[in-house]
Amino acid sequence: MQSRQKGGPRLLLVDDEERFRTTLAKRLREKGFEVADLGSGMEAIDYIKENSVDIIVLDIKMPGLDGIETLTEIKKSNPGIEVVLLTGHGTVDTAIEGMRSGAYDYLMKPCEIDNLVLKINGAFEVKKERDERLKKAEERSRLDKLEKAVRF
Fold first, then answer.
1. CB 32 within 8 A of CB 8
2. I need a labelling partner for 97 at 20 to 30 A (CA). Which of 38, 68, 69, 140 fits?
3. What is d(CA 2, CA 17) in angstroms, rounded to the nearest whole number?
4. What is the pLDDT of residues 77-105, one digit of tens each?
């Protein structure tokens, strides 16, 4: 695995089509991303319990836990992870449902690698900005508590 771009996102690619998944993972690594790839929604849910991930590229149509169900579980346990959905079955309505459930965006399969990289980078910017706002809010909260403690 190549080292990831300095400060770049940690990616998880989830797709049951092994050939597509391994090829896409290889192409993303060639672009400098750190990529783990898995074949099912359940594997993804287990993986994020033990590993830090910034962005998940998630196929919608998979056997077992489909992409929307996987997205819902991811957002319950790790709302800060951004998700880009992939759909190869013309299920734009399902992709829209996914966005309503918290996905950053979606792409139709097959997608141009450069379009996917743009979506990944956009999702990572959103995540970094939200993480920074959260960090500032937490710092403000600690300062407020400290000020109240000093006054009494």
1. yes
2. 38
3. 23
4. 999 999 999 987 666 788 888 989 999 99
